[in-house]
Amino acid sequence: MAAVCDICDKKPTFGNNRPWSRKITKRRFNPNIQRVRAVVNGTPKRMNVCTGCLKAGKVSR
């Protein structure tokens, strides 16, 4: 499943792992995406939605 919100288009961001040894490796910060059944134009549809949109009430479940 792609880590992209269907409502706000939130995507993964990238950064670095910085352990104590200072060996830098790339890492990925994924948004908290939930697969929910939402009502779109009167019909239920499965969507990938981030928890920020769920808490803000941007999705009618």
From TrEMBL:
<keyword id="KW-0687">Ribonucleoprotein</keyword>
<protein>
    <recommendedName>
        <fullName>Large ribosomal subunit protein bL28</fullName>
    </recommendedName>
</protein>
<dbReference type="InterPro" id="IPR026569">
    <property type="entry name" value="Ribosomal_bL28"/>
</dbReference>
<dbReference type="InterPro" id="IPR001383">
    <property type="entry name" value="Ribosomal_bL28_bact-type"/>
</dbReference>
<dbReference type="GO" id="GO:0003735">
    <property type="term" value="F:structural constituent of ribosome"/>
</dbReference>
<comment type="similarity">
    <text>Belongs to the bacterial ribosomal protein bL28 family.</text>
</comment>
<dbReference type="Pfam" id="PF00830">
    <property type="entry name" value="Ribosomal_L28"/>
</dbReference>
<dbReference type="InterPro" id="IPR050096">
    <property type="entry name" value="Bacterial_rp_bL28"/>
</dbReference>
<dbReference type="GO" id="GO:0006412">
    <property type="term" value="P:translation"/>
</dbReference>
<dbReference type="InterPro" id="IPR034704">
    <property type="entry name" value="Ribosomal_bL28/bL31-like_sf"/>
</dbReference>
<dbReference type="GO" id="GO:0005840">
    <property type="term" value="C:ribosome"/>
</dbReference>
<dbReference type="InterPro" id="IPR037147">
    <property type="entry name" value="Ribosomal_bL28_sf"/>
</dbReference>
<dbReference type="GO" id="GO:1990904">
    <property type="term" value="C:ribonucleoprotein complex"/>
</dbReference>
<keyword id="KW-0689">Ribosomal protein</keyword>
